[in-house]
Design goal:
- The protein has about 450 residues and is of the alpha/beta class.
- It has two domains: about 350 residues, UDP-N-acetylmuramoyl-L-alanine:D-glutamate ligase (3-Layer(aba) Sandwich), CATH 3.40.1190.20; about 100 residues, Adenosine kinase, small domain.
- Helix content is about 40%, strand content about 20%.
- α1 crosses α15, α11 packs across α14 and α12 packs antiparallel against α15.
- The protein is globular.
């Protein structure tokens, strides 16, 4: 424990003041625990648990279908909802709690808790949204004035009355709704899609290279927020524009770009993100469900038996995950494909940062993930001491041993660290306080520490 604590202290010190650009999606998550109150609000679906939800969700019956289906499968899901349904929920349903939501919001809050210095951009920055930032004074916002980007305090950037609200329906294994018993601790998200989320940021798009010159990495997410109703000229034009913005961002300096993937059930949008956005990244972050969807979209058939997305996890599945990641790395021509799974974290790399920097980032992410799961929230770096109290997954270590044998590389203290693949066991919390945002916590903490370690190496 003493060595782990010393390493954690060194990791936190490395992040102090690290400038990272984070965009595009932040919202307020309205949290509802599945139980009798929700059952009395929702109409019973025709066939609870078995029918896949429609997209977008247009009624409370559609919502009930989606929640029971997610409970039955044990795999967390997110589906967009129509504006009228979003309005109905906000008017008629009272959340049990609310918190920062959206990948950008969650990642920005974590970075400030860890002592980094994020530059954040999001649409619809309202007073209500501002209130969900834990340390708003540590966040800067890029505003363009006379062709120059000025990084202003976040509070000065509030410019909207409307707030993007996502509804998060959480349940634990054994919870029931309309006779359907949840098989795992997870959640279903009914996501709003305000028209402002069109991936056009006004004057900032043309000057984004100035942001690239001021930061040491970029965490980009939210591309899945596009909808046909909100993009007048179609996905292709919108995503081409977004692609060009990423290229302009990178032109400002030697900036590594991490794109955090997210599930969308819109086939055309998913195909556009795959073709236009993901190849622009240095790093693509996914969970096991998202990895499977990407492999399908790419038409990859590199494993005979696709790993089941339903629990329990089997140690043998890691080899299939590795092969899928490797194939996608080649197809997308990116430097790193990072998978955050329940029992381990895996990165397949090619001409990226040093393997040791990636290993250090994955091990740090495991501590962050356990802290988030156990506490429900990370408000300061001292909260990470909680994560250290959880042992690294024995099943994860077994899986990594299997992968090491498959690729012909040794392990060291349960981790695999080679020029082409890095893996570390996760620290698993059996009874998590919350599951929303853990993947974003993993991706942002690992990426930020990788960049900080690489910067230390470059400055040496």
């Amino acid at each position: 424990m003493a060595d782990a604590r010393a390493q954690l202290d060194a990791d936190i010190d490395a992040l102090e003041g690290l400038p990272v650009f984070v965009a595009y999606n932040a919202n307020v998550d309205a949290i509802v625990r599945v139980g009798e109150a929700l059952a009395s609000f929702l109409p019973r679906p025709a066939d609870p648990g078995t029918e896949a939800p429609p997209t977008p969700l247009a009624s409370t019956r559609d919502l009930a279908t989606a929640i029971t289906h997610t409970m039955a499968t044990g795999v967390g899901d997110e589906v967009a909802m129509t504006d009228p349904l979003a309005a109905t929920l906000e008017a008629e349903l009272s959340p049990d709690s609310q918190q920062m939501g959206g990948q950008t919001g969650i990642m920005t809050n974590l970075l400030t808790a860890l002592g980094a210095a994020p530059v954040a951009y999001t649409y619809l920055l309202s007073e209500r949204q501002l209130s969900q930032f834990d340390h708003p004074g540590a966040v800067r916002y890029p505003r363009v004035e006379d062709g120059r980007v000025r990084l202003i305090p976040l509070a000065e950037a509030v410019d909207a009355d409307r707030t993007k609200i996502n509804w998060v329906f959480e349940f634990g294994a054994g919870d029931e709704l309309f006779g359907v018993r949840a098989t795992e601790d997870t959640r279903f998200i009914a996501a709003s899609r305000p028209p402002e989320f069109d991936l056009v940021t006004g004057d900032l798009d043309a000057e984004i290279d100035q942001v690239g010159a001021a930061v040491e990495g970029a965490l980009l997410a939210g591309y899945h927020n596009l909808t046909p109703d909100h993009v007048e000229s179609g996905y292709d034009e919108a995503l081409r524009h977004a692609r060009d913005v990423v290229r302009r961002l990178r032109a400002g300096g030697d900036v590594d770009v991490h794109v955090e993937y997210a599930v969308t059930h819109d086939d055309a949008l998913r195909a556009g993100i795959y073709e236009r956005i993901l190849p622009e990244a240095d790093v693509v972050g996914v969970d096991a469900h998202e990895l499977s969807m990407l492999a399908d979209d790419a038409g990859l058939d590199v494993v005979e038996d696709r790993p089941s997305e339903e629990p329990p996890f089997e140690a043998t599945e890691i080899v299939a995950h590795y092969r899928m990641c490797s194939a996608l790395l080649d197809e997308l021509d990116v430097a790193c494909l990072r998978l955050h799974a329940m029992q381990y974290h895996l990165a397949v790399i090619d001409d990226y940062l040093s393997p040791d920097a990636v290993r250090r980032g994955l091990a740090f992410a495991a501590v962050n993930a356990a802290s988030k799961a156990a506490r429900g929230h990370i408000d300061s770096s001292s909260d990470l001491e909680t994560g250290l109290t959880y042992e690294r997954s024995a099943v994860g270590r077994e899986a990594i041993d299997r992968l090491a044998a498959h690729v012909g590389e040794p392990t060291d203290d349960g981790a695999l660290c080679s020029p082409t693949v890095v893996a570390c066991p996760n620290r698993v919390v059996a009874d998590p306080a919350g599951t929303v945002g853990i993947g974003d916590i993993v991706s942002s903490s690992s990426f930020a520490l990788e960049q900080a370690v690489a910067s230390e190496r470059d400055d040496a």
